[in-house]
Design goal:
The protein has helices at 12-16, 26-37, 61-67, 83-91, 105-112, 116-132, 155-168, 184-194, 214-223, 251-260, 269-283, 290-296; strands at 7-10, 43-48, 75-79, 96-102, 136-142, 172-177, 203-207, 228-231. The protein has 298 residues and is an alpha/beta fold. An eight-stranded parallel beta sheet has the order 7-6-5-4-3-2-1-8. The mean pLDDT is 94. This is Hydroxymethylglutaryl-CoA lyase. Residues 6-273 form the Pyruvate carboxyltransferase domain.
């Protein structure tokens, strides 16, 4: 039984742009986010408060958030992996943040130089400050169906990290197929394990389309009742850990599928195509979205 309504979390301005070679100006990002806000999207990840040394594409996130006009019904969020990032986000007026853990010990060590348990321990201060400032916290779990260093990842490991994030105070956990190696069977096994620890209303999915499997994996997740999907306009982004990775599943492709299934999203395709064309023109390429390319060609 599919959900009647799905909430699309637009991650292009953060997870997408941080993996693009071209660093956008604050004005360009603000224009993109405003175009996305006009589509009916209610949740937009607009930036990240990390060291510009490591992610230069996100260096102007404070400028972006300070300039964004709060639109009725639209929640702008930011990734804040540590206390310093959260403090800067609060100064910029952010009201929802995200933290990320990994289901792979190797990925955790290479990505943030600590074990999974150590990474979760570091978040304690972040959750404490967020609670003091009445800020919602979302959690990401990376490498849920495969790791570039370890290969297969146990669904039980994903369930354990996901439960830890919920127990620490996340209102929702998004399961990330970081290198896009998932298949429908892997998705089923993953969800059956995670749903033993977390209720469906606290679960989201974040699938990359490296092997062209994202939509079928999302369809599988929908069959289990998952009603929150992360995606990126124009298929923005990539993955530095997977050769040939095409990045996030495109919001246009997700919307076309959901519209065709009669699942409500509140998102207008024509408005979304305007945002897709805008960012694609800046990047100097066609959208990495089959639906966008087909619809824009009409």
């Amino acid at each position: 039984m599919f959900p009647k309504k799905v909430s699309i979390v637009e991650v292009g301005p953060r997870d997408g742009l941080q993996n693009e070679k071209l660093a956008l100006t604050a004005a360009q990002k603000i224009n993109l986010i405003e175009l996305l806000s006009d589509t009916g999207l209610e949740r937009i990840e607009a930036g990240s408060f990390v060291s510009p040394k490591w992610v230069p594409q996100m260096a102007n996130s404070d400028e972006v958030f300070k300039a964004l006009d709060a639109q009725a019904g639209v929640q702008y969020s930011a990734l804040t992996p540590n206390l310093k990032g959260l403090e800067t986000a609060i100064e910029a007026g952010v009201r929802e943040v995200a933290v990320f853990g990994a289901a792979s010990e190797s990925f955790s060590q290479k990505n943030i130089n600590c074990s999974i348990s150590e990474s979760l321990k570091r978040f304690e201060a972040v959750f404490s400050m967020a609670k003091e400032n009445d800020i919602k916290v979302r959690g990401y779990v990376s490498c849920v169906m495969g790791c570039p260093y370890e290969g297969e990842i146990s669904p039980e490991a994903v369930a354990e990290v996901s439960k830890s994030l919920i127990d620490m105070g996340c209102y929702e956990v998004s399961l990330g197929d970081t290198i896009g190696v998932g298949t429908p069977l892997k998705t089923r096994l993953l969800l059956e394990s995670v749903l033993k620890e977390i209720t469906i209303d606290k679960l989201a999915v974040h699938f990359h389309d490296t092997y062209g499997q994202a939509l079928v994996n999302l369809y599988t997740a929908l069959e289990y009742g998952v009603s929150t999907i992360d995606s990126a306009v124009a298929g923005l982004g990539g993955c530095p850990y997977a050769k040939g990775a095409s990045g996030n599943v495109a919001t246009e492709d997700v919307l076309y599928m959901l519209d065709g299934m009669g699942v409500s999203t509140g998102v207008d395709m024509k408005a979304l195509l305007r945002a897709s064309s805008y960012i694609s023109d800046i990047l100097g390429r066609a959208p990495i979205s089959k639906a966008a390319n087909a619809l824009l060609a009409k």
